[in-house]
Amino acid sequence: MNTKEILTKLQNNEISVDEAANMLKLAPTKDLGYAVVDHQRAMRNGCPEVIYAEGKTKEQTLGIMKNMLENGTDNILATRVSLEKYEYIAAEIKDAVYNKDAKTVTVERNPVEKTGGIILVATGGTSDIPVAEEAAVTAEFLGNRVDRLYDVGVAGLHRLLSRIDRVEAADVIIAVAGMEGALASVIGGLTDKPVIAVPTSVGYGANFNGLSSLLCMLNSCASGVVVVNIDNGFGAGYTANSINKLGASKR
Amino acid sequence: MNTKEILTKLQNNEISVDEAANMLKLAPTKDLGYAVVDHQRAMRNGCPEVIYAEGKTKEQTLGIMKNMLENGTDNILATRVSLEKYEYIAAEIKDAVYNKDAKTVTVERNPVEKTGGIILVATGGTSDIPVAEEAAVTAEFLGNRVDRLYDVGVAGLHRLLSRIDRVEAADVIIAVAGMEGALASVIGGLTDKPVIAVPTSVGYGANFNGLSSLLCMLNSCASGVVVVNIDNGFGAGYTANSINKLGASKR
Amino acid sequence: MNTKEILTKLQNNEISVDEAANMLKLAPTKDLGYAVVDHQRAMRNGCPEVIYAEGKTKEQTLGIMKNMLENGTDNILATRVSLEKYEYIAAEIKDAVYNKDAKTVTVERNPVEKTGGIILVATGGTSDIPVAEEAAVTAEFLGNRVDRLYDVGVAGLHRLLSRIDRVEAADVIIAVAGMEGALASVIGGLTDKPVIAVPTSVGYGANFNGLSSLLCMLNSCASGVVVVNIDNGFGAGYTANSINKLGASKR
Amino acid sequence: MNTKEILTKLQNNEISVDEAANMLKLAPTKDLGYAVVDHQRAMRNGCPEVIYAEGKTKEQTLGIMKNMLENGTDNILATRVSLEKYEYIAAEIKDAVYNKDAKTVTVERNPVEKTGGIILVATGGTSDIPVAEEAAVTAEFLGNRVDRLYDVGVAGLHRLLSRIDRVEAADVIIAVAGMEGALASVIGGLTDKPVIAVPTSVGYGANFNGLSSLLCMLNSCASGVVVVNIDNGFGAGYTANSINKLGASKR
Amino acid sequence: MNTKEILTKLQNNEISVDEAANMLKLAPTKDLGYAVVDHQRAMRNGCPEVIYAEGKTKEQTLGIMKNMLENGTDNILATRVSLEKYEYIAAEIKDAVYNKDAKTVTVERNPVEKTGGIILVATGGTSDIPVAEEAAVTAEFLGNRVDRLYDVGVAGLHRLLSRIDRVEAADVIIAVAGMEGALASVIGGLTDKPVIAVPTSVGYGANFNGLSSLLCMLNSCASGVVVVNIDNGFGAGYTANSINKLGASKR
Amino acid sequence: MNTKEILTKLQNNEISVDEAANMLKLAPTKDLGYAVVDHQRAMRNGCPEVIYAEGKTKEQTLGIMKNMLENGTDNILATRVSLEKYEYIAAEIKDAVYNKDAKTVTVERNPVEKTGGIILVATGGTSDIPVAEEAAVTAEFLGNRVDRLYDVGVAGLHRLLSRIDRVEAADVIIAVAGMEGALASVIGGLTDKPVIAVPTSVGYGANFNGLSSLLCMLNSCASGVVVVNIDNGFGAGYTANSINKLGASKR
Amino acid sequence: MNTKEILTKLQNNEISVDEAANMLKLAPTKDLGYAVVDHQRAMRNGCPEVIYAEGKTKEQTLGIMKNMLENGTDNILATRVSLEKYEYIAAEIKDAVYNKDAKTVTVERNPVEKTGGIILVATGGTSDIPVAEEAAVTAEFLGNRVDRLYDVGVAGLHRLLSRIDRVEAADVIIAVAGMEGALASVIGGLTDKPVIAVPTSVGYGANFNGLSSLLCMLNSCASGVVVVNIDNGFGAGYTANSINKLGASKR
Amino acid sequence: MNTKEILTKLQNNEISVDEAANMLKLAPTKDLGYAVVDHQRAMRNGCPEVIYAEGKTKEQTLGIMKNMLENGTDNILATRVSLEKYEYIAAEIKDAVYNKDAKTVTVERNPVEKTGGIILVATGGTSDIPVAEEAAVTAEFLGNRVDRLYDVGVAGLHRLLSRIDRVEAADVIIAVAGMEGALASVIGGLTDKPVIAVPTSVGYGANFNGLSSLLCMLNSCASGVVVVNIDNGFGAGYTANSINKLGASKR
Questions:
Q1: How would you classify residue C178: left for phi > 0, otherwise alpha for psi between -120 and 50, otherwise beta?
Q2: Predicted pLDDT at G35
Q3: What single DSSP character describes residue D120?
Q4: Of A174, A202, A227, E81, whose CB is crowded by the most CB atoms within 10 A?
Q5: Sign for the pseudo-dihedral over CA of G51, G53, G56, G59
Q6: What are D199's strand-pairing partners?
Q7: Contact (CB<8Å) E156/H38
């Protein structure tokens, strides 16, 4: 119900001034004390609920998930979940599924329908896979088809070039790379599709926990490359979904 | 002409081994000594040519533009062009147009057709306008409609909230902000469309030439926010175009 | 007029649904294209208007000031105004006053009444005076009495200790220091009043444009010290006013 | 006894030159070898004693607490106390109370009377709660009433806006946020009360242990925002108390 | 087989268009899902295979090694291998040899023939030895003779000067130093041979995990000094080999 | 007159309580508004007055100098004085002497007697000379004999080694170096005298305005090396004097 | 004359003890006061003299050059020479040649004979050319043949791939790149020759004056890449020469 | 035996050319493979041997100590020794003494005679004591008398001022402080003796492992303050000894 509808109801005396005032306060949220759960968000934002579990206790994480499920959320994605936290959750939520690489927990009671279009997730090396999986799981959970293209870093350029058809077939590309942030530039130069670059903290020395790849990607000479936070696979998967949804109907 | 077509021509003896070898070298580029101009790029990347003029002399900038125009490029965008450089260019290329705020030069002999969809460009303050204009001009040059929403920073939240309908009407949003990198987070929380955040070097002290806004945007708690380099209005406009093009046909 | 009042008017049919919807959009702002001037802010925030002039052209600065004065703002403070900008402004706004040290322009057609309480502005050295003056002018403009205590840095501790009575007499203290960020710690240890520390970019070498004093002040071992951005005299004066207003009625 | 009183006593021969010289040395402190305990501070600074326990051994922490209690301090707050340290202390000081979230130990044998006014402690997310609790416990220990408003980060703006009345009711506001340092700016724009911003080290990647939120808050475009060190809940609570005390008598 | 050879074969109908298209995709690689193993690299790059084991699971590391050995690689070097990982590998690959200092695993079924020329590996202190050993083992594995000169830091200059003949006898020098990045400058001033500087993370405080030595070496006033990443012994050994191979035939 | 003497005078009724209270406030300083001039400092600190002129206007600098001379200071050193400022000063203070390299102004009406002992000032390169001269002039002004040893950087070690006798003859050594911060380490290893290292901002690229040399010197592996701020020649000269004065009587 | 020869002369009474002691002090240097010119270096290091002119006055630069020429140096390279400095020099040294791009001055009265082998200098963009020219001029001055390959950055990969034969033909490669530090990685993956990476300060925003490209190159995933300081074209050219000289005789 | 003595012996045919050449190589060192032990250093540098144990294995540490003792060193100081390493050492070297706070091991078979003069070691807080003890133990081991003044940070200035006589009595002062790097400035302003500042990594948040105190101390506005590396208690103690030795004979 939008503002004008509420005001019309008031004018028609279907609701009182106090009720209108309350309804105009924007949100049907649930305050758990330690977290304000937002039941309207799925409607408002067009996507299921996501919980960032790092820094939350297992009790808090479970509490939020249960509150959501009890209030009508069918699909939940929790990221950065340790195995121990998952086991605590799974004892109560039997259909919670764990992805060990991505460290995600998903509950899918009413899976999102698959959108057309393909999101390609590429990595520079083997060590970047956990971050890439977080991106891939997120994109799949939100209803996208994902193509994984791992270990195609620019130091061995032929590994990427010999698979160029898969780059060309994608609608959105997520480039995940640590030491070799250059992957995003190279892919960005080979395609006109949006490229979301994810720097990872893989590497050592002057990599400074991902600063090196972050700066490299921000300074990419290839147009069309945008960047998310270091190791932020979720953010990349989420934005890739937003972009793909925009473009979905045309295919 | 793709690889297989070239090889088939060779098999059919329509071309020689040397010709095929040459054609397989990917690019019909023109080497000016100081720059390799890429005439195939419009076809390959689906967009007209762009020149980043900073660090190039006025002679080099003009030289590249003339070479392009002589080789069939109709539309050129040059960014980071000082007024003095523009005047040097305009003496020879009469239809070059200068945008003083954005510091761009455009030649549009065959303007790109407008795509459906709207790209909203928002700024936190008045001082962020030059970067925003670079983004807006870029997006318009590439064939997009742009809505400008300036000076709506989060310190006076009502300025943004009272214009929320324009945020909702947009397909892609570019949030440009210096001191108050928070603009991207707030917009990201109000929409499910992709938000491209552009940190600017506006500010002083611990802003450290844009580092503050850059970090703030990278750490945005709103999903769906991606970031480009500090002051990189062009990159934001370019990627917004890529995203909008993906989604264009559905409207 | 608050939300309930608007809704009651609607219920009483004194206004239409559309009028109510408009009024509920929070702000009577004026959009100048390059700036959204906020005429309700004086009421909402309890203080006159302030313009941060850096990064705005002289035309924009004057435009905003004139728009304010025409819409009922009596008192305006503009900070970071170059002498050249001031002269441009003064040609049209005859009663605009310039403070050369602080680089501020003030228009005071209806000066704010003086609050009780004293705000002490102390500096470590002579070179910190411009920043201190920005703080002092701001605090005075907002209706506070200011005591200036300059060049009392900790390397000559007796300079401060012999004036301790002035520290004790103050209600809020602003400690401005560059090389010697230590001033805030020492004052913080001598008083139980709030101390607002302003790091300045004065110094050289490993001062790194104020980073040294900023970190020093943030790490102050004295409780009760809070920090604003490097060289942000305005912010310190503004917050000192907020604090002093809270405490004013008791004196 | 102040300087003049001591000198008058000397002039009246009530004390000797040596005694006067000793009394003029400012402090009745107690040197434990590893710490100089300051028994006059409660009088001088108007507040009970606080111990920062990090980096002190459990023996040292207990030793300081016992020395204080034996010398007339009734109320003690120790911060950054691990559970193990607390248990060591509680074995000897039976009325020591532990707050597990805030990691504080309090002894309150003569609780400070409650001041008028409310200190609001707000957090961006659930993970910021430990720092917020340190601030809240500190403020309460020093005699203030505290309102907690947790998990109202700007990515879901309605969570904050629908509770705006609690922001308006507060006299001093503490805004605690990690990833989303933007909370301080948004609150600062909605109120004219002093806002103390506490960046937290919550987040990952380019958050760089709180640097991101720290810089974001220092660069806040909202006037009236001051900042304390990363994770420094104590400092925020302590200064909020100083400010609230200034304003207390007016209510 | 190079491009022209492939095209000639096609023209001669020795291969089909599809076969040619496939062959022109550059590489006979093997995709293990988590890693793309590059069997052509030994030929292309002139050196045996190297695996960077950090960030790879023990299963992945073993998997890559076995795939290589099964596909004709005789000599493998794996770096950054923990003892536990080695033991897992050694259970299946019996002739895998572990170097505890360097944390390397080598399989040498067909050792590379020794090149002429000497690579000198020098360290500033005892604590730099692990990084130096990684460099030395790498250089030896690739077929070079190595001279080790450890603990000759510049604080005791005579330790280096009294061994100056060994510096003079070397063809390429690797200078490994932590606190005392100065070693590279001093050696660089004493010889006209290429000096590869390896900063190490040895040290404390303002060493900032090797940043100090890195910057020191990058700013070396001695010409002829080049730098690799912090602790990157492998990179130094690898490049020293490339350089030595260039010069080998002349001796 | 120390505290006990003042108290005794009071007890003897030679002074009043008010006079004693005033005298106990430590300092006979002169407040010029923009600067607090400290006339007691020469006595208290054992050295003539020094003015850091950077950030002070020429009027302020001259004002302070004149006030000092009028109040009995015979010898003044002003550092970081531009030629323009000097000329302004010299118009009124005829015996002010300018050193163009060091950018110092000295007035010596009663030159300090020369102490025994030698302070050696060494530089890595020619470009470090201005900083070295600031150190040398300071040390000479304070009454020390100075030996200059310029352009003896470690990249050409023999330049230093062939002058080792001058290093051995010195009592305190100041090592000034930019790119090659290594100079301090090498000298520190050759002598047991105190070495004061002065990093300079000479260099480019990853020198980052002296950060490189600063970190290098702080991490010196040579014991006995202490560091002052980047380009802080004055500080080095001043401390060298303190040290030399301690040791002077023995020679 | 080496140590043993000197000692033998002494034993044979051809020289005195004092003469021998003097000769054993390593260097026949000439002390100009502001610079120690090293006449033995050409012999010792095998290369002509180089002067780094930045930070030296024009008088000092000319003074050093003249001293060298008068003492038998035939070939001089001065780097970082402004046009104004050059003109001052050329007035006295008529055969001094200026390279405007590289900002170098060369005097070649007895040009070094050309070594076999090719040094390839590649740049990512047009703006990197000045640094590349400094490298190229240095390498040529020292007797190498240089191949220039400019504007082949990775965003348009075909520009590099279509010239791959020139990469393959080189013996040493210098990769100069600003925004796109990735160039070194890509080249490093395509060749087994040593690659010297030169980060440039070209770019803006988060490039932070070359830090971005520096870190990117240090973290290159391609083996065989070594790095010099930001914008240090000279260092790259100098080391490329050392490496090429090692390998020269084999061709 | 110095150079001239060796040459004279050669001239007198007391030694051969080869013997002379060997003797002229400067050092009677002992190469243990992992460390070059320097038996001449005590003579050359005037102080006993010191071992920095961090980064050395317990076997290496013991090995170096035993080699020293067997070759005539009577007094050894090892720093950064863990308890476990100490126990390993003590099993063989029975008279090795452990200081748990300072983490030092000392062997003193022929204690150095006490020098006149006092080295004062002051700390800001209790948590700085371990670093202070490293400084104090080092200074005592080298033959100095040490006065400890702990927990006198500037937030409670009277704690320091009431002990000012002990500051005045010292000949060299070591100021150790973490959060409150201001201690060095305040002491520096109260005395004309050399002050060696030791930043510690004590603190949290924006302290960044000691960076805050380091920068604060480097930027001290008090003349006469020099700085050593973060947590480098040893370096401070060592240099304090050098300085005190210079001044010792005068007392």
A1: alpha
A2: 66
A3: E
A4: A227
A5: positive
A6: D177
A7: yes
Contacts of H7 in chain G (CB under 8 A): 7, 10, 17, 20-21
Dist. CA F240–CA H162, nearest whole Å: 29
CA dihedral for F137, F140, F144, F148, sign (positive or negative): positive
- Which residue of chain E comes nearest to G195, CA vs CA? E239
Residues 6+ apart with CB under 8 A from C88: C58, C62
Residues in chain B, pLDDT under 70: 1-4, 21-48, 180, 247-251
Count of positions (residues) in chain A: 251
For residue H121, the model assigns a pLDDT of 97
Around Cβ G72, how many Cβ atoms within 10 Å? 8
- Chain segment H173-232, per-residue pLDDT in tens: 999 998 767 899 889 988 889 999 999 998 778 788 888 899 989 988 788 899 999 999
Q: Is the pLDDT of residue E231 over 60?
A: yes
Q: Which residues contact C139 (CB under 8 A, 6 or more apart)?
A: C119, C121, C146, C174, C237, C238, C240, C241, C244
Chains F and E touch (3+ CB pairs under 8 A): yes
Q: Are H21 and G4 an interchain contact pair (Cβ–Cβ within 8 Å)?
A: yes
CA distance A138 to A237: 5
User: What residues in C contact B162, CB-CB < 8 Å?
Assistant: 25-27, 29
**Helix ranges (DSSP H) in H76-206:** 83-90, 129-141, 157-161, 164-169, 182-190
> What is each CA distance from A92 to A87, A96, B104, in whole angstroms?
9, 9, 60
Contact A93, A69 (CB under 8 A): yes
Give the bridge partners for D43, in sequence order.
Answer: none
- Which among A231, B191, B227, A200 is positioned nearest to D203, based on CA atoms? A231
Interface test with G, best of H9, H10, H17, H18 (most G CBs within 10 A): H17
What pLDDT score does D243 carry?
Answer: 94
CA-to-CA distance for A82 and B48, rounded, in angstroms?
48
Question: G231 contacts in B (CB within 8 Å)?
Answer: none
H29 has a pLDDT exceeding 60: no
Mean pLDDT of C164-181: 90
Query: Taking 80 as the threshold, does the pLDDT of residue H250 lie above it?
Result: no
Q: What's the pLDDT band for E9 if we cut at 50, 70, 90?
A: confident
Directed axis angle between helix C129-141 and helix C233-248, to 10°?
40
Name the 3-class secondary structure at A38: strand
Looking at the DSSP assignment, which residues form a beta bridge with residue B149?
B122
Average pLDDT (D214-225) is: 87
| B interface test, pick of A79, A242, A244 with most B CB neighbours within 10 Å | A242
C21-53 pLDDT, tens digit each: 666 654 345 666 666 665 444 433 444 678 888
Rg (chain A; Cα; Å): 21
CA pair distance A98, A79, nearest whole angstrom: 10
- Of D243, D12, D235, D241, the closest CA to residue D114 belongs to D241
Pairing of strands B104-108, A145-149: unpaired
Contact residues, chain E, for A162 at CB < 8 Å? 25-27, 29
Sign of CA dihedral C5, C8, C12, C14: positive
pLDDT over 60 (residue G108): yes
Per-residue pLDDT band for F1 (boundaries 50, 70, 90) equals low
Q: How far is Cα H244 from Cα H225, in angstroms, rounded to an integer?
A: 16
Contact E229 A150 (CB under 8 A): no
Shortest CA gap D77–chain F (Å): 35
Instruction: Using CA atoms of F216, F130, C182, F215 in order, give the dihedral in degrees to the nearest 10.
Output: -10
Once rounded to an integer, what is the mean pLDDT over residues C2-13? 75
